[in-house]
Write the structure tokens for this entry.
Amino acid sequence: MTALTLSTAAAPGLRADAIVIGVAKGAQGPVLAPGAEAVNEAYDGKLAGLLETLGASGAEGELTKLPSPAGFRAPLVVAVGLGAEPGTGDAEDAEDGYDAEALRRGAGVAARALAGARKAAFALPVDGPGPVEAIGEGVLLGAYSFDTYKGGAEDPKARNGKAPLAEATLLGGKPRDAAHKGALARAVAICEELNRARDLVNTPPNDLTPADFAGIAQTAAKEHGLKVQVLDEKALAKGGYGGILGVGGGSEAPPRLVKLSYTHPDADKHLAFVGKGITYDSGGISLKPAGHNETMKCDMAGAAAVFAAVVAAARLGLAVNVTGWLALAENMPSGSAVRPGDVLRMYSGKTVEVLNTDAEGRLVLADALWAASQENPDAIVDVATLTGAMMLALGSRTFGVMANDEAFRSAVYEAAEEVGEPAWPMPLPEHLRKGMDSPVADIANMGERWGGGLVAGLFLREFVGEDIAWAHLDIAGPAFNEGGPFGYTPKGGTGTAVRTLVRLAELTAAGDLG
């Protein structure tokens, strides 16, 4: 991953491959953002006009490259658009300067464009630890590249033609300031784990079976002082985990339930995170049609997010106990696969009539939610690529938030917005519950067609213990980016929900959640 450093050095004398500056969209044209003063002075104060001549407007995601002026050691200036200038009609919170998400996205765009460079200096607006963290996150997430299977060479440059940006110096960041150093360390810890989640989502399913994923969790637990428990197929059968066993029964790669626990001696609150981990989803007997299964390696993105968030909480030393539950299975058709019409007895003791084997995520989550509930945590948050219906409702960049408590739903939504992960609160209409009534079981795994994402949330609610605050994040849209990269988001696995979960843990540790 890109190495980050802080520096108060002046841009002209800094030895680097490029100097990155920010440009905003002003009322009368592009406006240079704070941090670009030394560069502008070297252009005799005419840099904004030059950029406009080159077609730059300051729009978010825009990138303009131009040769450095005389006297600079770096040969290249990269101007990245930050969107509306603070104080204009299009910008919010003008009194607070540039929005953290604008800085994060701008840094991500520049870092990705500088693939192949050894070092870049980022002269973006820095007036405290907040911008240091945002720019650092943008660089680390934007420079991400998944090249494991390209070329077969050890050298990433040989695999991909261009290695990710090797080093980034954040100008204006104070290397001896504790707050600045702490902000950078937080960015590194979170982004390293988020990028690990991306790696897992991008890994092909022949190399990431439930057992493989469990092994990775065990290795990370040992590295970061976490407790880990892995239930294999025999332990799952003995414990009565009918949902996980039913979904995984059709595959030669048997299921696993992983419990990953982080505890802090000063903690008085306990959060449980539950992740859907379908390492490949064919749909089972209710087979997905061609065109709908090619990216189904990403159906474990919820478990990847939970895994990353627990490790990040440990690395940050948060004063809160966090338990992650990874419900891992591969959903395949075979003679031993669960069939439409089968009835499963879940870990909770409830029975479920399986009407569609492609509604499998809710079955593995149900067992894990009930297991998490037995520890009576203060709150449970599950994360899942659960329904195509949520994508139809919210698109490919926004995840839905449902909950059994409106205040908790609002808290989760606000945490997501705070860290720059687009989310939207969704209801759980009681009238949709009747559609899951079954003549042969306690509940069916399908209900009304319309509002399918909400139906899935209502199903999950049935397996949450009484008096436990619970939220459900349906990340089906933003978990895997099938389009081109944007901001700090790459093509492929995105690591969505990791930062939201970490923020929830931070707020809980500080006593500011609920």
